[in-house]
Amino acid sequence: MERVNEWNQKRRFSRAYLDEDGDPVLEADLDLAGEVADEAIRAFLELFEVSLRAFAAWIGWE
Length: 62
What we know:
By secondary structure, this protein is an alpha+beta fold. About 50% of the residues lie in helices and about 15% in strands.
C-alpha cells in the first residue's frame, strides 16, 4: 500500500489503489465530452501504456 500511495503522490495523470482483493489497479480518465479526435484517443492510450509499464516496475511486477 505504501508504494501505491507514493505513486499517487508523485504522479498526476493516473491514480493507483488496491482493489477489494488487494490487487494493485492503475486508472486514468479520458474526457470524451464533445468531439474527441482519434489522435487524442491514440495519444491517451499510448501515454497510459507508458504509465502502466512504469507502474508495474514501480510495484515490482516487471
